[in-house]
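Lab notebook, bench 4. The sequencing result for the construct came back, and we need a structural model before the next group meeting so we can plan mutations. Quick request posted to the team channel:

Model the 3D structure of this chain.
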Amino acid sequence: MTDSGLVIRQGTGTQSFPRPEIHSVAVKKKRHRVRKVLIGMGVGTAAGLGIGGALANDCRGIACEGFDVAISGIIGLIGGAVAGVVWSSGGWREIYAQ
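Done. Here's the predicted structure in token form:
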């Protein structure tokens, strides 16, 4: 950025834009995809285990309770991972506006 405009350097060359023609400039935010997927997996697993535990109260026997809780935890883990991927859109941050 200069007083008279914006200069962009790319592999193909340099391009200049005069300041009156620039309405805004924005940069892409960092995505943090892995962190958001891990958070989603943790929350989903905890929710799945909680729901599985509540559903297992109607079931009789230790094997039945463990199976219900484990299946619900796995479903929650998968759902949380998918939610983390969808949630991880980075967005844009405006650095200049006329």
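The chain has a mean pLDDT of 83.
Will bring this to the meeting.
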